[in-house]
Amino acid sequence: MFVCIKEQLDGFGSQFQNIIAAILYAGLNNYEYVHRPVRKMEHNYDNMKKWIVTINDLMNIDKKYRTLTDLRTLKTQDRPKRYPIVNFKKFLDLNFETCLKSNTLKEIKQSYLANKEPIEHYFPKGKTHIAVHVRRVNSHDNRGQQDFDKDYIKLMKKLNNEYKDCVFHFYSQGDVSGFKNFSRQFSNIVFHLDEPLEKSFHEMVIADVLVTSKSSMSYTAALLSDGEIYYKPFWHTCGLDWKQY
Q1: Pairing of strands 32-33, 2-3
Q2: CA–CA separation, 214 vs 148, rounded Å?
Q3: What DSSP string describes 16-53?
Q4: Pick among 3.30.565, 3.40.50, 1.10.1040, 2.60.40: CATH of 119-244
Q5: Which of 72, 119, 158, 198 could form a disulfide with 58 if both were Cys (CB 3.0 to 4.6 A apart)?
Q6: What is the phi/psi pair of residue 242, to 5°?
């Protein structure tokens, strides 16, 4: 019996989260996970020709699991039966701590990191690297403004006192002039604005500390992270070891 997701059309964070949830569902229920590679995805702002190739390479899932294409090459009598599709994200929410501590998630993390450069390629040694994700309004949805500067600034001041050697890596969209509330108060901040998704996401995953926004992108990065997580509550479950702000 195997588990597979439906094809999705939304953004990277949501799609990768659903894939992770499906793998966890399969692993914790003794089913095989069969991978459906991403074919369509929102938020390709620069209309990159190899956008989908880049996304699948970033997740690095298809090298570990059989795909639907692999199953089609088998004789009919040799193909496993497909388990009915369930709400995998809801399963993850309802079994969050079990999933976080599972060997299956450890395997997902290992697979994700297998084709990445060492941490030093992204962050220099000797500092505490704090990734801060601030979700801004974008042209691909109508959620509006959901992140407020004051919430981040309060937390960043706290972290600045805790980690004397810290550097804030600030991930968002827009011009730096729109973030004067931050640049005026923190000299140890590096702005990563409108950078490639694959770079931003991976740096959130490997940061020593991750401050999430109300976004599936940074939430999914938190699932893969072994760092300290500060979680801004929205519609998904928070880990017991995560700190809400």
Answers
A1: parallel
A2: 11
A3: HHHHHHHHHHHHHTT-EE-B------S--TT--TTHHH
A4: 3.40.50
A5: 198
A6: -80, 150
- Which regions of the chain are under pLDDT 50? 139
Q: Are 43 and 11 in contact (CB under 8 A)?
A: yes
pTM of the shown model? 0.91
* Neighbour count for residue 189 (Cβ, 10 Å): 18
Q: Where are the domains of the chain?
A: 2-113, 119-244
Task: Please count the CA atoms within 13 angstroms of the CA of 241 that sit on its side-chain side.
Answer: 14
